[in-house]
Amino acid sequence: MKDVSAPPAARPDIGELRSRVAQIAPQIKARAHTTEKAGRVPDQNITALRMIGYFDIVKPAMFGGYEHDFDVLVELNIELAKSCASTAWVGGLLAAHQWLIAGFPEIAQRDVWDDNPDALACGSYAPAARAIEVDGGYRLSGRWSFASGCDNAQWSLCAALLPSKTESGQFAPAFLLVPASDYVIDDTWNVVGLSGTGSKTLVLSDVFVPAHRLLSFADTTSGKTPGATLHAANPTFSIPMLSNIPSCLASTAVGAAAGALEDYLAGTSRRITRGAVAGHNNRMADFPTIQLRVAEAAASVDAAREVLLRDLRDRAATIRDGRPVSVEDRIVSRRGQAFSVALAIRASEALNASTGGLGLDLSNPVQRAWRDANAVGRHISMNWDAVGTMYGQLALGLTPQGQY
Questions:
Q1: Would you say residue 277 has pLDDT above 60?
Q2: What is the pTM of this model?
Q3: What per-residue string of b and e applies to 339-363 under the rule 16 or more CB within 10 Å gives b?
Q4: What is the secondary structure of 158-173 as a DSSP string?
Q5: Which of the ends of the chain has fewer CB neighbours closer than 10 A, N or C?
Q6: Which domains does the chain have, with CATH numbers?
Q7: What pLDDT, in 10s, does the model give residues 167-203?
């Protein structure tokens, strides 16, 4: 299906992409349990996503991408997560990183895609070490954890602290692009949620990174990157990173909850209770408590989806109108991302709590979605306590403390 030579005008619209995702969803869902047990997304899933052009959705047209706005990727990732949250977490991030790489200088983008147009990048966002400045670039050593999808990637975005160019003794965070040949993977991923993401640890030992493979946090969180100038014909590349990337993470929880609702309805609508004490031989669907749980889950998923997509579309509209994305805009985006995850957790909890003994089986998709949604909520960028207080500070006239 994929045609990297197609001009932007020939790119598939969201209807076509939605149809492609629906075509591969059954095979992704069939492998969800084994994906979890394997602790990584299988190559078959990555190949299926590549064949439908998933990794081209927000990739720049200069390198064969479709250059869609980020809401398209997030909407599709919600659909993908219904089948397997781990695959959506990795697939969504690898696709989102195509957009992030587009912020680097052109020569760095060519390093990634000229020799391998299908190249993908994982990432570790916490500045895990200080880079040592040397002639022509930097040297990196250390351990970069939570590198989701590292088994499926050819590059990594490793965050590090670099010496400040303006303040002596000060350091500033940046992403450095590192090829997979320059690091080894330490399998440290043994968790109860998002188990199939393979979010392992990258180990670098005195690796040289050319200076052009650097993107500062200050540039990407403001949207004022070298790549934004290179791809100036499409303002989507000028949107601040934290208004976009975390929405892709949040979509995994929303999609997992939406999938849990579908699976719950399929099982519960025909289920007959077997308990001798409460509801013997009665239809589960007849219980008002069950009906209420379904309504709560459906409303929570619907609200979460709408908030995520609304904020993304608002940011895109702002930048296309030639207006700057304000601090308030950025924090509203962060609020919506974290709250949508809180809603997804609420939805999955409402359903999982009433699955009974059958819901304890590890192959049951409802309990997996519950664990996966909760795992998304543990991510610092998705933690409602951390992000919610940041919005509260803004609303109360205080200086927001956090990442936005």
A1: no
A2: 0.93
A3: bbbbbbbbbbbbbbebbeeebeeee
A4: EEEEEE-SSSTT-EEE
A5: N
A6: 14-116 (1.10.540.10), 121-216 (2.40.110.10), 241-396 (1.20.140.10)
A7: 777 899 999 999 999 999 999 999 999 999 999 999 9
